[in-house]
Design a protein that fits this description.
single chain; 30% helix; DUF5785
Length: 105
């Protein structure tokens, strides 16, 4: 895919040092962006590459098509919703993640 910026550059995964949630979190200003609207966020960043692991890069919109929540009250709320969607849809790379997280609806 022809990405708007290098998936592994400083705007992306910082030379493959950051994956998934960490790449998405860099797009948020915790002090100013909340409440955050899902559709507006995807409209702005939907084509941005998100490196999931050492092999896979997807567009942010591909992750957010699985996020049901329309608005997030704060950073924690945002991370919980995105994490649930990623784990439920094989977009979560971390081996053993099921040992550290509980699925919450």
């Amino acid at each position: 895919m022809d990405w708007p910026h290098d998936p592994d550059g400083e705007q992306g995964s910082e030379g493959r040092r950051k994956y998934g949630h960490a790449v998405i979190a860099k797009k948020i200003d915790e002090e100013e962006d909340f409440p955050l609207n899902r559709d507006e966020f995807v409209s702005e960043y939907g084509d941005d590459p998100i490196r999931l692991d050492y092999e896979r890069v997807v567009a942010l919109r591909d992750i957010f098509e699985h996020v049901d929540q329309e608005e997030f009250s704060d950073f924690v709320d945002f991370h919980k919703a995105v994490g649930r969607a990623m784990r439920a849809n094989d977009l979560w790379f971390y081996e053993g993640a099921e040992n550290f997280t509980r699925s919450r609806s």
